[in-house]
Every structure is written in C-alpha cells, then in structure tokens.
Amino acid sequence: MERAVVCVDAGYLFAQGSVALTGIKQRRDLLVLEPLKILSALNDVLVKRARGTALLRVYWYDGALGLRPTLEQEQLANLDNVKVRLGFINSVGQQKGVDSLIVTDLIELARLGAICDAVLLSGDEDVRVGVQIAQNYGVRVHLLGIEPSRGSQSKALLQEADTTSEWNKATVADFLSLRSVPAQSTTPSIVVKPGTGTRAPVPAKAPPPPAEAARLRAVARGFADSLTDGDLKSLLSYWMTQRGVPPEFDGRLLAKSRAEIGRDLDMDEKRFARLQFTDFVKAKASVATS
Question: Which residues touch 260 (CB under 8 Å, ≥6 apart)?
Fold first, then answer.
C-alpha cells in the first residue's frame, strides 16, 4: 500500500491557532494542546486529501528551549507513529532550524520513494523548496492552514501546493485551548522605592519566615490549581524518572514567586517554593485519580 506523511510546524500551529481562537497571537505557555485530538484531526485531513494511502508517520517540528525537550514535546514523542524533530529557540524567542528539518525530510522521503503524498501544516515560504523537490519526485503535497490561511501562509507556498485546505476556529478549538489564568493574589507585594534598585536576596540558612513562607505557599498552590489534567499527567510522568521541577514550569513558578515577594528569591526560598509546588501537584493528582 502507498504511504503518506504528515508534517506539522508547531510554531505555526500555536501562533495561528491562538489567533483563530482569540484574535491575537498568544504566548505559548498560555496554550493547552490535546495531542490525541490533533492527531485525529490531522488523520481526517490525510484521509480526505490522500485517499487510499496509509499513514507512514507524523513528523512534529518544534523549537527546543535549552538542551532538553519540554514535557509537551516528550509526551508527543512517546505517542505511536509520531516523530518529534527539534530545532531551537534563540535568545529573542524565535524558532530556528525547523524549516530546514521539514525541507530535508520531505526531500529524503520523496527521493527514497517512501511516500506518495504529504500533508503539510505550515505557512513559511522557506519550506517551498522542499515542496518543489518532493513534487519533482512525484509526491503530491497537500497544504493545510488555519483560518485565515490567506493571511497566515506564504502566497507562493499556497500556489506551489497541489491542494490547499484550512481549519476553522471550531476545528482548532477541539484540540487547542487557552489556559485559564488564576486571579492575582490580593496579598500586598513589597514595593521597591525608586532609586534604591532591586533588593538583593539575603542568603538564608533556614526556611523562609512564616509570613513569606505563607505567601510562597499560596503562589505554589495557585499555580498548581491552574494546571490542566494534561499538565498533571506530564509532571507525574516526569517525576517517575527525574527529580525537580521541569524548566518550563520552574520558570513560571519562580516568576510568580518573585512578583509576590517583590524581589529575587534566595536559594532556600526557591527550594521551598519548588517543594510546595511539587506537594500541591501530587496532592491534586491524587484527588483527581481517586
């Protein structure tokens, strides 16, 4: 049986998906993806556009923050028939190296005769050369966009594709949603007077004083309460083999804690916040599964 591949540019998916949902581009950490639901939606496109083919696999292209994949990327990589390819995120938050990965895979799969069709979810003109060369090898390329695709995808890329289609808001809302943001704490924060600079953290040899400990505990609880079921499952899976708080959660926890305390945290305060967060997450997960 002839086979087809699905190539997903995650940067485009999250950026344009958030625009479809809210009207403006949202930060990645505010978005929640349902992996199984988007894979089902992608398969529907494949069945419609590449009739009579079997799925070879889904290639998921994304940028990596630092040296390790995020929990979301690891969750996707552990799914059947999904291969995660990672570029990187530069110092200003731009995704780099992803387009070249897409182009390389399209050309190699076409050259080796591994596929006859490809569904491509992307909007960047830089992948057009991969589409052209794959087509020269006889592969039909089906470009998928997110409304309004005419405003989010390269005109040249749209013209190059064999077929084009787009997901509307209702389709996107089935697998992508905006994370609920808990209300800010009403506890007054420490105000730094103009001209004095940020108060430097004071080295500590004991747990934070009761007042600060209570505020850090409240931040950790609020952050844990804001997590989705998918977040909880990812964290519990992470803690089965590793220790500490994953970077994508740790950064948000410490940022919320700094905002609450009004200064940088010392090492003991950071450790305390992380332990509280871990305890609250495990407690919430235990209640959810009981």
Answer: 185, 187, 189, 215, 216, 218, 219
CA dist 287 and 62 (Å) reads 33
Place of tokens 């009403």: 186
Give the amino acid at 234: S
Instruction: Look up residue 247 and give its amino acid.
Output: P
Cα 137 to Cα 109: distance, rounded to the nearest angstrom: 10
pTM: 0.71
Contact by Cβ (8 Å): 131, 120: yes
Q: What is the mean pLDDT of each run of 10 residues along the chain (290 residues)?
A: 94 94 89 94 96 96 81 90 86 73 96 97 95 97 91 92 96 90 43 42 61 88 86 81 81 89 88 88 76
Residues 6 or more apart in contact with residue 114 via CB below 8 angstroms: 3, 5, 56
* One-letter amino acid of 107: I
Cα of 11 vs its chain's centroid, Å: 8
